[in-house]
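Researcher: First entry.
Model:
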Amino acid sequence: MGQYWKILAPHDRVIVADCGKLGEFLFDGSPGDIPMQLAVLVTEWLDNDSDEAACSTSAVNGPSSPRASLSVEVLHIIFSHLADYPDIFSLSMVNPYFWEIGRQHLKQSIVSLLCPLADTALICVGDYTSKDPPDNPANLLTTDEEEELQAGLNSDERYCDDEDDEERPYEPFRPPTNLYELAKARYGGLVEVQGRCLLWPKIEYHFRILGEEMISLRRIAKGRLQQFPESERSRILALASPRLRDFFPKNEVWVLRNLMTREFVRGDAIALREDLVDGPLIEGLGFGEVVLSRICFSSDGNANMFYEEGIHRGVWAGHRFDITTLRKLQMERKTRNLVSGMMLARKWRRRLRLFGQMSWVTIGSMF
């Protein structure tokens, strides 16, 4: 039957993806969903270097309404009690003074719902991983998590294979268990655990707001736009109907960062062609394929593909990642090592073949 795999965020007890057979999942475009979970938003265009000063000026020179005399601190408290994006936006449109505060809370609302897996330990674990003795990446699990594996599963937590339930005979659980089976029995998805959904590429993000509500926000924005400085109007309209491309611009060079080893991979170095690059999303060979090929972990090398190296002993298994812009990386100047994107691309093209029939370059041309 072959080995089955799951991408996990073990510390959050989250199943990121049920991969099935690794040799199929790795090459069918599925890893392309990973970058949107790791990409850090570009939000500088929402910032104002003189926010507090602008608030103070608006409070002094603004309308004589009692609402304009509220302090910055009080307004922050009021906005913090609003849970819905439309409510925050509507209150922000009272006047320029409210907008300066509300815009910061609109930004926080967006950031809190995007990049759900940035700076989160990730591993793609196989179901053939040894239970006794336990086999896990060094320093990945806490003491409590290791003890949970040693304790095993309850008698009613039956193993159920993802696709071949009827082919595998019933085997009662006995301690210990491995991370794959523990996740199958006890972990949940991002929705159940964090209340957040996986973000799918090329689908506009509207904060789970119905279309009519978005139209209403645009109507409010356009109706009150003349009351605001011209420099703010484009931001108001953008936040009335936020789009993914506003926060993941195509004109930036994006990089995948390993936050533990301080290594990074440039997107423009691994892309098979320039026209396949769409911000942090790269069709064919992209950041998702790079991450997945380096976080797999199992005691058994069965991966349903030909590969000359031990993909099942991933050197990045259990590490934390994000995807950010090269400009931000250069500004922070914290990364010391470089994983050559061209080296990775050449390795993929030369050594990874799906069932010995397709080269990676051929697969890249399928998109």
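Researcher: Second entry.
Model:
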Amino acid sequence: MFAKLGTDSKVKQLRRLRDGNKNRVITLTENQFFHDFGGSAARPYDLAVFFTAAQVTTGNPGLKIAELQHEFSLAAMAVSAGPQPDAVFFAEVSFEDCKQIFQVLNIQSLPLVMRFSGRQKLTTSMKASDIPKSDSLTPGTVSAKYPWTAETMLELLATAHSVEHAPVFRPTFLNSPMFWPSITFLLATAVSLAYILFRMGVLSSPIPYAIASLLIFWFSSSGGMYNIIRGVPIWIYDAKGNMQFFLPNNGQRGSQLGGEGYIMGSFYIALSATLSLLTFFVPCLKRPEQRAGLGLAGVVFAGYMVIKIFTLHMEKSGSGIVQYLFTN
């Protein structure tokens, strides 16, 4: 009786932690993993655990860990919305906070998702061989295309163990009730704007074509086609869930995110626009104080852009500025 009361208490705690997160994924600590929620071999629930490490996620965008985490959360939401929400609890364990778990299970590589049966007691003396291979999701054990979808993970973590779940819901603009009204509004607005611009003679002006040229230059200098062809993510999430646009230099070529290129392309545009204004606009001002003020502001801003561009370049390439003027 007391064991059942204790089990019910654990389920209530897990349910509270799960429902407190929008993605229905619980972040476990080592104590919770080995003692609070995994220290019994008579649990009425399984644990599906997603293992992650910030150093791997930030240094290897090609692994698409962030995308896999998103699919894992969709699977968690499908189970929590189904008829057996407490049969499997989805959780996440990070290397930075739970090194002992990684050591006990001898985790050497990612991505990795493991299912721990409720009949299995989780202790610091357990071995990786205690986990059936069918309960370890790795690129070598899952035949489905990587990154695995929520449906694939549900098939292996829930359906294969007779756990029913709700359908995976992927909120997109296409299945939104505002899709067709928005499309109709955009088309009507585009046609109306094109007609107004045509009547005003704007289409015969060089300004729109100059803007289009700048956009093409920005897209090209930002590596837009590289991002599209290689499928480079615009950003990733760090261990704290914050968006990260820049990857630290790890000595490897091509270790960058799409957002880095677009930000650098914006810097190039800003610097070029400032130099153009200093060359063609500022000298045409009639009042000397205006020329002096805008000229000084332009020089300062242009200098800041140059410093920013070179600083980011040195951080990414690991190189530095070498001077030869005063060397012996």
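Model: Note on the second entry: The CA atoms of residues 268 and 286 lie 29 Å apart.
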